Write a sequence for this structure.
């Protein structure tokens, strides 16, 4: 089955050019605004998204943030395709954690090559162990993703509510979670997760900026695989994940 690529761009000419380049190797869908892209993803599974930056009402960066809040788009790689070449745009793309960056005008060879590269990388990650990271701090989520993405399929979610929704359909191999989050702290979230993973015991590693006696006692009643102080190093994270996987 061909991969589904969604092109999001308000410039009809650019849309048609990119469609003509990608049709054949991929199945292609289009959206002329960020809002329509969000509506499309809610109703149709996609494998890769090509996203323009300069769009009215909701620009590419705003659209990216909204897409990444959606359960349907958690594992979907997003490539920015933009006429901007300024340092700020390139830097912001890296900070936000986009999966690729292409400057317009882009050749057929470059576009098809990048989409295929990102899609194949996505497929290869699906065979790895999955680590679900839950934290309301998006910047920290991106740091952890950078540290772990070469070893695991990392799913980052920035709210307990979205994490619980994700867990109704997916069972990760390990869960990393922040202790201090809105609505639920780490202990209460562990309690809910243990009741909602269909009898499957998923090891949980708790990360906390404060590790006092009260927090430790509260967490240990739910038998976490480990409790680590934030920020944890890459070495410590991987060691504890590997130990948890052996349990």
């Amino acid at each position: 089955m061909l991969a589904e690529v969604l092109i999001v761009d308000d410039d009809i000419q650019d849309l048609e050019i990119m469609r003509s380049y990608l049709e054949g190797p991929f199945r292609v869908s289009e959206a002329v605004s960020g809002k329509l892209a969000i509506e499309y993803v809610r109703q149709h599974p996609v494998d890769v998204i090509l996203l323009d930056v300069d769009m009215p009402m909701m620009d590419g960066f705003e659209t990216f943030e909204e897409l990444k809040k959606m359960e349907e788009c958690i594992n979907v790689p997003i490539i920015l395709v933009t006429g901007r070449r300024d340092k700020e745009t390139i830097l912001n793309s890296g900070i936000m954690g986009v999966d690729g960056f292409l400057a317009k005008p882009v050749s057929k060879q470059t576009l098809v090559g990048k989409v295929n590269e990102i899609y194949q990388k996505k497929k290869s990650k699906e065979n790895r162990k999955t680590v679900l990271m839950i934290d309301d701090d998006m910047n920290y989520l991106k740091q952890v993703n950078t540290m772990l993405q070469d070893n695991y399929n990392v799913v980052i979610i920035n709210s307990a509510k979205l994490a619980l929704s994700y867990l109704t359909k997916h069972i990760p191999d390990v869960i990393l979670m922040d202790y201090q989050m809105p609505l639920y702290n780490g202990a209460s979230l562990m309690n809910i997760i243990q009741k909602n993973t269909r009898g499957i015991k998923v090891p949980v590693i708790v990360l906390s900026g404060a590790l006092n006696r009260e927090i430790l006692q509260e967490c240990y009643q739910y038998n976490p695989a480990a409790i680590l102080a934030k920020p944890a190093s890459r070495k410590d994270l991987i060691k504890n994940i590997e130990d948890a996987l052996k349990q």
Notes: The radius of gyration is 19 Å. The first strand starts at residue 4 and ends at 8.
